[in-house]
């Protein structure tokens, strides 16, 4: 997600930051990052909003959240999922990679269009040698696991912060720094062999010149002419894209596709250039660039792009700008208009009348076990989560606890109080059932399910 980049400021050189940004391969695709840090609507309602109220058709999430993947089932929306950074060392082992695919991809792939799998996020920026040394092996193992599982078309890559030494007077002269050339060459070789894009985050916001803000937000400004190629740049985004391409080309990988996993502009921060108007202007022009517009060095070339972000996320730590990247507020009303709403409709989607009670994501194992013990002491039949039961999952305490919590909740007619469980339960309209374990639901006061 958007964070302050680690870059070096020089008279004509900048070391900027980039994360990742992806879009669908269709020329009309509009991609969005769907973060979840804050008091946001449940996934089923969010996906219904995206599907019915917007023209967004590509979504990137920062994990492999099963609730979100279930909500996206059958929508036709392209999805990018992510392997958490901490899982990378284990995934260097092919068998572990196969288990990860089995748990996070195979249960969903037939109904949910998973297009990209990102292995970690900005790993080189972590300076963690254990993660860095296992990054490429993990990508290779995951690719092999997908092939063995009959899913060779899913693309594996990893998102990068923008660590190109950026020459603002001559973007074509921008290069990877000497310390990272070797690892970037190996990653690019993987991308070439796997036919996957090299992913970056492109944030002119973090590189903005206070005296030339318009250049960063696609406003009227003094154009920059590359002193080496003679190409003219009217905005910083195109210059950053060509700087990335030039750095890749210098290593012999100019043929590898580029994807932008994140880009955006905050509507509020502690500086004068963060306004809804500036954010709208930036993102409207980014959407135009998703239509195969290309750049001076890459004319008509398609670059997959995901806007950052769907929502303002009030749960994110850090300064004001971190909470204000969203196109929409948590109630689905637009922060500003970039033309992604269908017919000007700004209202939230109708909520489902079907409801379930499940354990909160942050609930501890101690809370979950206490919930199981208490519910089973109240005369509720808990045989389905016993070792021989159809809903028993020895490795998923949350699933077992959610099952009995929901049975209790349904037995009380779906009252909100019956799903409190000392603050560890939450009512959802997203069906938590699996193919082998169907959870009852309340709809209009009657109980359905088995």
Task: Report on this structure.
The structure is a single chain. The chain is of the alpha/beta class and 450 residues long. The protein folds into two domains: 27-328, Alpha-Beta Barrel (TIM Barrel), CATH 3.20.20; 356-428, no CATH class. It contains twelve helices and 18 strands. Helix 1 (43-53) links the parallel strand 2 (31-33) and strand 3. It is globular and about 80 Å long. It starts with 12 loop residues before the first strand and ends with a strand. Residues 4-28 and 444-450 have low confidence and may be disordered.
The biggest sheet amounts to: 9 strands, parallel
Determine the mean pLDDT: 88
Report the total helices.
12
Instruction: Please give the radius of gyration in angstroms.
Output: 23 Å
Q: So what's the overall shape?
A: globular
The CATH architecture of the largest domain is: Alpha-Beta Barrel
- What is the chain-wise order of helices and strands? EEHEHEHHEHHEEEEHEHEEHEHEEHHEEE
Q: Estimate the helix proportion, in percent.
A: 25-40%
CATH class of the largest domain: Alpha Beta
Q: Could you give the count of β-strands?
A: 18
Q: Strand fraction band? A: 5-15%
Oligomer: single chain
């Amino acid at each position: 997600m958007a964070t302050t980049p680690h870059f070096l400021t020089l008279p004509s050189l900048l070391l900027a930051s980039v994360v990742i940004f992806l879009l669908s391969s269709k020329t009309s695709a509009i991609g969005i990052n769907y973060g979840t840090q804050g008091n946001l609507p449940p996934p089923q309602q969010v996906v219904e909003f995206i599907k019915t109220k917007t023209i967004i058709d590509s979504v990137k999430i920062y994990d492999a959240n099963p609730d979100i993947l279930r909500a996206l089932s059958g929508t036709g929306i392209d999805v990018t999922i992510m392997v958490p950074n901490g899982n990378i060392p284990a995934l260097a082992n092919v068998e572990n990679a196969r288990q990860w695919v089995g748990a996070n991809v195979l249960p969903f792939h037939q109904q949910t269009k998973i297009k990209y799998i990102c292995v970690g996020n900005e790993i080189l920026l972590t300076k963690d040698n254990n993660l860095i040394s296992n990054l490429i092996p993990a990508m290779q193992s995951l690719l092999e696991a997908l092939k063995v599982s009959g899913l060779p078309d899913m693309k594996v890559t990893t998102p990068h912060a923008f660590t190109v030494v950026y020459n603002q007077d001559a973007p074509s002269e921008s290069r990877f720094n000497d310390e990272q050339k070797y690892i970037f060459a190996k990653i690019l070789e993987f991308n070439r062999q796997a036919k996957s894009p090299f992913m970056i985050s492109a944030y002119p916001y973090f590189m903005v010149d206070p005296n030339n803000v318009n250049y960063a937000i696609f406003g009227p400004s003094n154009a920059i002419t590359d002193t080496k190629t003679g190409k003219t740049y009217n905005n910083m985004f195109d210059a950053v894209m060509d700087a990335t391409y030039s750095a890749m080309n210098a290593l012999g990988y100019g043929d590898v596709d580029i994807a932008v996993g994140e880009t955006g502009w905050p509507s509020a921060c502690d500086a004068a250039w963060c306004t809804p108007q500036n954010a709208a202007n930036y993102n409207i022009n980014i959407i135009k660039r998703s239509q195969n517009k290309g750049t001076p060095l890459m004319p008509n070339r398609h670059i997959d792009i995901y806007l950052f972000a769907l929502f303002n996320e009030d749960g994110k730590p850090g300064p004001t700008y971190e909470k204000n990247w969203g196109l929409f507020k948590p109630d689905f009303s637009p922060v500003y208009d970039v033309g992604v709403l269908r017919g000007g409709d700004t209202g939230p989607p109708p909520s489902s009348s079907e409801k379930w009670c499940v354990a909160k994501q942050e609930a501890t194992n101690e809370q979950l076990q206490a919930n199981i013990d208490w519910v089973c002491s109240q005369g509720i039949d808990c045989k389905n989560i016993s070792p021989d039961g159809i809903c028993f999952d020895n490795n998923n305490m949350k699933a077992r606890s959610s099952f009995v919590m929901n049975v209790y909740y349904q037995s009380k007619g779906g009252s909100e109080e019956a799903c409190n469980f000392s603050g560890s339960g939450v009512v959802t309209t997203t069906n938590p059932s699996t193919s082998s374990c169907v959870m009852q639901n309340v709809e209009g006061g009657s109980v359905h399910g088995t």
